[in-house]
Each structure stands twice: as C-alpha cells, then as structure tokens.
Amino acid sequence: MNQSSFNPQSRWDRFEPDKGGFNPDALDERIDVLAHFKHSRIFPKSFTWKDKEYTIETITYNWQERLGQALVNYFSVVSSGQIYQISFNNSTFRWQIDKIIQ
Amino acid sequence: MIIHIDMDAFFASIEQVINPRLKGRPLIVGSRAHKMRTVVCAASYEAKALGIYSGMPSKDAFSICPNLEFVVADQAKYIWTSEKIFELLKGWGFALNYASVDEFQMDILEHPEPLKLVAQIQEQIYANFNITASVGIAKNWLLAKLASKINKPNGVTLINEANFKDILSATPLTKACGMAGKTGQILLAQGLKTCWDLYLNLPGFFAENPGKFEDIPEKSKSIGHSYTLPRAQTNPRFISAWIRVLSEMVGERLRQKNLVAKTIQLWLNIPEKGDFLAQKTFAIAANDSYEIYLRTLKIMTGMAQKRPKIRALGVTASHLSPQEYLPLLIEEKRREALVKAIDKINCRFGDNSIFPAQVILTRK
User: Fold this and answer.
1) What is the pLDDT of residue A4?
2) Quick check: B49 and B73 in contact, CB under 8 A?
3) Which of helix, strand or coil describes residue B204?
4) What pLDDT score does B219 carry?
5) Which one of the listed residues B69, B83, B87, B103 is annotated catalytic?
6) What are the residue ranges spanned by the domains of chain B?
7) Is residue A75 part of a domain?
8) Which CATH fold would you assign to the domain B94-206?
9) Size of interface A-B (CB pairs under 8 A)
10) What is the CATH number of domain B222-363?
11) CA nearest B299: which of B216, B243, B242, B217?
C-alpha cells in the first residue's frame, strides 16, 4: 500500500484564526451530553446547552481530528429541525457545542 | 488493470450530507469565511450546472447565482473521510494509491469482472458515507483517470481496445491529465482538439504506464507552501509575518522528513506587475524555520519594487538532502534544542500550539 504520493494531512488552514478566519461562527461552549459509548463508537443522544435540553433525533455525519495527542470526535446532529455541530475531546473529556449549522 | 476512483464534488457532497437542507441546491465550499473574498474550493453538481467551477473567485460565482449556498471549508472532515475511504478500499486487498484527497487508484491486476468489482466499491462508499464516486477503468493510470471524468457523477467508464479510439475521439483534449493548463492551450493552438488527436501526435502520452505503484519510496524534490491573502497588501510587516508562517510550515515538514534544504524559492503574486519568482542556493543546508525565513527575506530584498502590493505568496525549499550535519557551536546546539522543544510541544498539544510572536500579525 502506498500513501506517499499524496499526504491528506497537508493542511492549508492550520494558521488561520478561528473567529474571522475559517470558523467565524465558532461557539466553543461547554455542554452536558448524554451519550452511548458502544463498540468503540460514540452515539450522543441529547445535550444540555444554556439550561435547555436538546434531544438528538439524527446524527447526519461524524468525523474525527487529531489535535496533538488528543482525538476530537465531531458530530453534526439534528434537534427539532436545527443542525448543531458538537464535539468530544477524548483527552480532556470535554463536550462542547462548536457551532449552529445554518 | 487500473481503476481510478474520483469522488464526486467531494467537499460539497460531504457538506450536503451534514446539512440535508443543502441537498439539490447550488452550493460552493470556500476556503475562507468571507464569502465574497474567497475562492471556490468545491462546487456541488447543481452549482457546476450553472457554470461555477473550482478555482473560480467566489465573487464571480455569486454573480452567476446570487442565491448560491455557501459553506466554509473544514478540512478535518474531508481528510477524515478521505482516510476512511482509503481504509475501506484497502479491504479489497489490491495495491492502492492516493492520487489526491478525493482520488484513489487501485491496481486490480487481471480481475475477471472489473465492472462488478467497481459496482461493489461504489455501493460500499455510498453505504458508508452517503456520497458517490465516479470510476474509470483502463490499462494504465492516465487512461483510468481520464475515464473517471467521462461519466460523472456516480458513473463508470471502461476504456479497452475496442472503444479506445471512440472514447478518445469524443473526449476534448483538455480533459486529459496535465492538459488543462498552458500545455493544453499550446496543443489546442496547434489544432489538436481531442484526446485522439493527442494520441496520433504523441502516442507515448497514453502508452503503457503502471502508475505510481512501484515499491520505490518517492523522494520529495521540494517542499513548499503558498497562501492567497484576502486582499492585496503592501504593509511589509504583514507580508513578513506571512513569510514567517509559510517558512514555519516548510521547516516543520522538512524536519518531519529529516531533510535539509539548500535552495529557497520565493514566489509573490503582484496583481499590477505579475509574478515575482526568485531563488537562491546557500552553502549550508537548513531546516530551521527561522533560518528559512531569513533566507526568504534575503531573496525578497532583491526585488526592484520596495513596497509591492502583494496578493499571494509562497515559500519553497528544494535541493533536499538527509540531515546529517551535527551542530558544533554552542549557539547552534541551543537553537537546535529550541526547535526540537517547539516541535515536541506542537506534536503533543496540536499544530500551532506554540508559534513565533510575529505570526500574531496574520491573525488580526
């Protein structure tokens, strides 16, 4: 197997600021999440943000990113017709809401 | 036999999966948040149908379609998806190669039923990621890549001896790999219109070529990074800060590969004057980002124009060799220890956890 001809980790956005750069809508606020951890996978079921509980109806997509030694799991989830991006950092065990997807 | 798997409107398709509201709508993915001051990284098929294409200034795309949907690129999800597709494809057990973040090549040897195999691959990709891929099948990677572009999206094209002439005659020259730019324009001017014309004039172009599956590890000839600024800038401090950013990125990649570079090249795009491109070879090879930065500045001093209006810039290191030199002087040893410590911090806590203060200027 050969991956040497192209490195998917070569990134162009590493030096961009979060706000005003690549992620101007960043919320990055801590949330409480009820989730199932099953077969090495995470299934968030609901989250509480600003004292309001949001039931997750669908996970439209999930992906991961390695930030140093931490692995961050991202989820785009639907609650009451609105899509949110939430994430879990396995190093800090912190759940956060990243942004509201318009 | 080679199959070339080309993901259909990769970034845009992923965004449409994440946000089902965007499905069926013209959508562009931009490299920067300001939707009128960026470049189209990817366009959905609905946007492509309107004449919008990757590389187009977003302003032009919005002038074609004012109701265009816009999403800022988030590379983490594209890279993750690309790697997962690569893992999935590995499951078939054939030699596999990354052609780009959204293109994969597989050597299926003398597989008796290539079309059936391709159907399985397309089905599995869709089942796992909800996105589609177009596939080309041919005797070599160049033809397979060409074939993958013929029947998009979610299509399959097989080029064999029987249809070789028909397919090449019906395919515009500019669809062939490497013919989209200046070379293609030169050949078009010479009257070569289709890939068949190209074959008749340059039969070697489509000759047997197994692709990039050789076991010989590929050696990097150069390592470079470039960046297009949101708008043209003249402030020398700001320009220097961006050169520092790019030097940091180049230096980090050199150190990761344990390489040093003797030659540094600077590229500047000056809208009023065109491109400035200059390089200099130094006696001592380096991979320290700060040294690369200083060398790049030295090249920049050779410019005739003192405060050019710069829109894009790039730093490239070449003339690469393995790092063998051991620092002898105390200052050199201290510098090397510092660079190693910075690399270690960024490896532990993530890229860009620690960076030169000068870089702050690029973040305002």
Assistant:
1) 44
2) no
3) helix
4) 67
5) B103
6) 8-76, 94-206, 222-363
7) yes
8) Alpha-Beta Plaits (3.30.70)
9) 114
10) 3.30.1490.100
11) B243
